[in-house]
């Protein structure tokens, strides 16, 4: 077996880690978590591995158990072409362009020169988002709103929505396939829905409300611009008077026409 033939389905490396939580030996934290969290039938025994707590490794070449290091104390082999002792992380696949972010406190992939750390969002983002995204405090330190996996240290690609909230890229694609075009957290639209709004405009114009509803006024709150207002009631949609979005919530209905305070925003 060659030097690059050791490891698991997650990483190529020449060492296994001794999990301090259970004393068992695993190739990586994902192998541990799959065994102890996903496959463990006894709920009392389910737990995840914090790799920063690992203090011992087992060399895959000579089986020597030893303190965490980048080289084996017995045979001298490198445990990984990339090694980070702060994260107890080793990997032979350098094409991932691994780097350690001090602000995040973990290793990431994609090349340090291609990312910047946003202190407000608390995570590394692609350079294309620098000065070009809505900051949400600690936006990555939460679960994906679709699959509920913790985003901050997830190995799956993550997307940043225009509203600043984050979600797994594949979860976002699943939402798009199912025509779910609102952020699951704040309900703002994340796609350009102007063509849909124009179609609703035409449908509203082609469908006048019966006389009994002619004077009804709906008080609304827009999910997209967060402004309140009042608009003529229509069963097909209530259009925001500020941003023209139909992504609105009906707060109340005035069946007697505009009130004396009709020129002021509705209740929130």
UniProtKB/TrEMBL annotation:
UniProt entry keywords in alphabetical sequence: Metal-binding, Zinc, Zinc-finger
Keyword match Repeat: no
Superkingdom, natural source: Eukaryota
One Pfam family this sequence matches: zf-CHY
InterPro entries assigned to the protein according to its UniProt record, in alphabetical order: RCHY1_zinc-ribbon, Znf-RING_euk, Znf_CHY, Znf_CHY_sf, Znf_CTCHY, Znf_CTCHY_sf, Znf_RING, Znf_RING/FYVE/PHD
GO BP terms: protein ubiquitination; ubiquitin-dependent protein catabolic process
Protein name as catalogued: PGPD14 protein
Annotated organism of origin: Coccomyxa subellipsoidea (strain C-169)
